[in-house]
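3.2 Worked example (two chains)
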Amino acid sequence: MQERIRRRLAGTREAPPPQELSAYTGDLNVSLDRLPVSPERLRPAAVLVPLVERGQGLQVLLTRRTDHLRQHAGQVSFPGGRAEPGDRDAVATALRETREEIGIDAGFVRVTGYLDPYVTVTGFCVTPVVGFVRPDFTLRVDEIEVADVFEVPLEYVLDSGNHQVRQAERDGRRLRYYVIEYRGRVIWGATAGMLVNLYEKLRA
């Protein structure tokens, strides 16, 4: 599986500046002329899509955000966040945020490629950075931001039978979004959309 992922993601690149987007996946499922904000106002961000190398197979590491956060409270997410001025690129953002949120240092991660840029309803343009993670890390969780850390078998995520599509109303607009349920946990929105994008890239 690792070789398949490396092969499929070979040559993928981080998201261009938001104003240069020509294609993306996103919360709204609309064309580029109907972004949540104008392209120049989209804020760059990055997440790490961590694939932990366990003996039983690759596992997707996910976090659940604490309930008191201003944005995305209680949601399941990848470690990551907005780019900061000192970040060299999307990889630097994703690895810095991963270290800050759950304590996994960059030395445990081998970056292998990128998924498609993802535009969120909150106005971020997110670069998903895919990396293999050595399993001998020790978590150091930032309890202000992260309520829980858990893993889901990649094989489960890549089974299209576990991909649900749901609808909701937002500001008078009907939105469609992906949901993946696993042992009582609900992965939805941007995180589920990125996982489905990984499935699509590996299926191609």
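3.2.1 Second chain
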Amino acid sequence: MPKSPDQFTIDAIAASVRYEPETGRLYWLPRAPETFIGSDGQTKAHTANLWNARFAGKEAFTCARPDGYLTSSFNNRKLLAHRVAWLLGTGAWPKGAIDHINGNPADNRLSNLRDVPSGENQKNMKMFRNNTSGVAGVHRKGGRWVAEINSDSCRHYLGCFKSKAEAAEARLAAQRRLGFSDRHGTA
């Protein structure tokens, strides 16, 4: 949730950004001069004209982070496209994390977004990039393989196994038992 709700109300964002729920795309709307601070001795009208010529009508929130989420600045604060899409699509900031149902962080169609508690969102995460075993929640310790899983803010030790395959099997069984999605831990 934004720290300064007055700057990030639905009205302020809706006056500056248009959302297409069917495509998930966001577009900059033309801005009035009073929404700008004149800079370098220029009037607000001049600054508005420059901004509108460069951005109005163009797709917004197109900067992709390394993890694939789209972002942009709004009133000098970075906002994530999926959270703005949720705000404009539902009329309220999300209460929890926004989960991309299909796992694509750039697909911000309203039908692909859901507001879930953070723990629920964790059950859909892809495998971490620094994973060395190739199996989420499985790592080598000495000459054996350890399987663990984090769920509901608790780390569950699943056992120590002779083979990576046995550890992976234990991890997969725990994922199913705890309600993790099928895509959890995939590359």
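3.3 Remarks
The mean pLDDT is 87.
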